[in-house]
Amino acid sequence: MRRILLAFLLVFLAACETVPITGRQQISIHGDAEMNALGAREYRRIIEESDVVTGTKDAKLVSEVGNKIKNAVASYFSQNGQADRLKGYRWDFRLIDDDEPNAFCLPGGKVAVHTGILDITKTEAGLAVVMGHEVAHAIANHGNERMSQGLLVDLAGTALLAAVADEDSTTQFALQAAFGLGSELGLLLPFSRLHESEADRLGLIFMAMAGYDPHEAPKFWRRMAAAKEEEGGEGFEFLSTHPSDETRVKDLESAIGEAMTFYRPSGGRQQTVQSSSPQKLRKMRPRNQD
Ligand SMILES: [Zn+2]
């Protein structure tokens, strides 16, 4: 058992990375090239199966806001000698025709926004809140971290089975049940909440770098919470992994000060999102994209 623990410790130390700006240590076992290839493949599949909106004012705005944020972040990294961090990214920003108020990102900088969220984002700055959040997931390598955690949990389960092989079957069963529960609720869920909070914090900073006022973020999340309320409390999965809307808004408000130190007002006129007729928000399918 001691040898197994030592092996874990070595894997952990060898695979430790630091999230930019927040400085949080994260586990990252998979290579960037592997993650980016996985992200690109999955994105291609989703794009092929979805109604991608092109040529409209909204589609152009999604691409413009995404590129503004991406360019601002890239210039921040290159000014701080960290241009290498973005080397493997192939950014892509798309609008998908889907009523579900959602947005998602895949490793390597693939970001998609649903038309259903445009009624809630309302303005260009509101859209920047959502896209800043998604760009943050990509830059903080949350996909790699989550997959690495999954791998470690599997390995730990295997190690546990080996360690208790001599125990009677009741003890084995009890240990497995305890570990199964512990790994799911104790490890993976809090980490995904942590990812949401970190993407919120970095998202504020990234939108500020691109010239969008981070004070727009709590306003957007209040509108999101109201839209959710209107739907009878059914959770949109864009919110599902976060503790509560109030906590989120409170955390965002207290992170605005930090984000304002990165704020570079662009001075340019921002556009209003021309969303189509008032869209009905329909019940959400539970999906694990946020
Ligand atoms: Zn998220």
What does this structure look like?
The structure is a single chain. The protein has 290 residues and is an alpha+beta fold. The protein is built from nine helices and six strands, in the order αββαβαβββαααααα. α7 crosses α9. The longest helix is centred in the middle third of the chain and has 41 residues, at 169-209. Bound molecules: zinc ion (ZN).
Bound ligands, each once? zinc ion
What form results from the Cα inertia axes?
Answer: globular
Order of helices and strands: HEEHEHEEEHHHHHH
**Strand line-up in the sheet with most strands:** 3-4-6-5
The percent range for strand residues is 5-15%
- What's the story with the biggest beta sheet? 4 strands, mixed
Instruction: Point out poorly predicted stretches.
Output: 276-289
SS element count, helices:
9
CATH level-two architecture: 3-Layer(aba) Sandwich
**Arithmetic mean pLDDT:** 83
Number of domains: 1
Q: What structural category do the secondary elements indicate?
A: alpha+beta
Number of strands: 6
Radius of gyration: 20 Å
- What would the CATH topology be? Collagenase (Catalytic Domain)
Proportion of helical residues: 55-70%
